[in-house]
Amino acid sequence: MEEYWDLVIAGAGPAGCTLAAKVGAAGTNVLVLEKAEEPGRGRDWIVDVEKTVFDSADVPYPVQDALRDECESEVMLSPVAGHEVTLLAAPIVPIRNGVYMRQLAANAVEKGAEIRTGCTVLGPITEDNAVKGVRYRDINGGESTAYAHVVADCTGLVGAVRRYSLPDWGLSKDVGESDIVLARREVRMVNVEAASAEVQKGSIRNKVRTGIVSGVGTYSTQLYYLDLDKGYIDILVGIKPNPNLPTPDDWFRQKMEQWPFVGDKIFGDGGPIPIRRTWDSLVGDGLVVLGDCACQVIPAHGSGTASALIAADLASKTVGRALSEGRYDRSALWDYCHAFQSGRGALLAYFDVMRKHTDTVGPKDVDKMIKYGILGAEENYSGMVPELYELGVAGALKKAVKGIPALHILAGFAGAGMRANKLMKHYQEYPEKYSVQALSAWISGLSGLY
């Protein structure tokens, strides 16, 4: 069966549903293909999202059922000695992803888009060196084709369309194992009486979000939030792929044995997340890539929802204009690419350099970083939001004096910060208009920066 649409979107996640709603609102024929039985079924876990993004990206604020409890206080612990830092309250809101995705999907349908579930995108239809649609397996197992002027790949790390795109677009590469984190986050019931006893012993805290950094290898995180009043615990673990380390599933099994007061799962999920900087380009002829598929994730902690919403807002304007003008090549779709790369993408690139440097720091050095104030509340805040932390001369001197016992670590991060600033500036100077020469020159300029 062949069909013809203005826009076909692969994936009904935050980027796909938001793009569908915004483009569909203009009366455009939009089809969204989602492999799960309903949107949000695949990644029904808690995501931490910047509070400002709903207004800035002009997307619906989460309904009450999607909102989770904001913690009353938060601490960060070092992995070996347990040095503790009380963290600053970051302007983020925890959201149950599955509920919010269904809200965004309903909004897209209300704005005129069609969403088909149980449909797995198999790859692009490529004609005349351009993407002209997608092939997909429908809910009955049959293979169908959907032609479109523009295709948006929002299929996450799978990259169902982009990985089969033309090689010279630079979108068909795999994300390297070193640029992936395996995550699992679950909300579980607790035996309140037994959990209260553990709180009394001091083995866990009530209503204090507690994070342990680098406790299971480099770039790892463990996070707990216990609420005795409501009888649940929120547990998150993120671990880089490593045959010498437990997987998140293994880690959860071990933690459940250590914490017998933790009961059945209420909701939660797990999976791989790309944590590298964005691809060098986000568009091809007839193709745009968004969300995790474009590596639009905050490298400091692996959350991509806010970036996906921002990307969808930017892409909707470019795709809408391209459809109205009847032009669908890279030049016509480039405004989205330039706007994201020179803005949000530049910030993500900065934190990716810092993330890669952190990969070289062992648990004992992380202990020293926290003990001597090299990694403190301000640095954690800047990575969560994300925004650059302006240290200033006085702050730099204070940190240098406190960090004398770990001066080599401080020097390493200072050097990484200089490289990160250079890469961010390079992204801010991303080509405003597309040409092969301009993009090639920009990619060449990455040499030595990343």
Q: What descriptive keywords fit this protein?
A:
single chain; 450 residues; alpha/beta; FAD/NAD(P)-binding domain; seven-stranded mixed beta sheet; 35% helix
Description of the molecule:
With 450 residues, the protein is α/β, with parallel strands linked by helices. It is built from 13 helices and 17 strands. The strands form three sheets. Strands 1, 2, 7, 8, 9, 10, 16 and 17 form an eight-stranded mixed sheet that branches. It has a seven-stranded mixed sheet with strand order 5-4-12-13-14-11-15. Strand 1 (2-10), helix 1 (14-24) and strand 2 (30-34) form a beta-alpha-beta unit. Helix 1 runs parallel beside helix 6. The longest helix is centred in the last third of the chain and has 22 residues, at 407-428. The model has no long low-confidence stretch (mean pLDDT 93).
Question: How are the elements arranged and paired?
Answer:
Layout: E1 2-10, H1 14-24, E2 30-34, E3 46-50, H2 53-56, E4 73-77, E5 84-86, E6 92-96, H3 97-110, E7 114-117, E8 120-127, E9 130-137, E10 143-153, E11 180-190, H4 192-201, E12 208-213, E13 221-227, E14 232-239, H5 248-258, E15 262-274, E16 283-284, E17 287-289, H6 305-325, H7 330-342, H8 344-358, H9 363-371, H10 377-384, H11 392-402, H12 407-428, H13 436-444
Parallel strand pairs: 1-2, 1-10, 2-7, 4-12, 10-17
Antiparallel strand pairs: 3-6, 4-5, 8-9, 9-10, 11-14, 11-15, 12-13, 13-14, 16-17
Helix pairs in contact: 1-3, 1-6, 6-7, 8-12
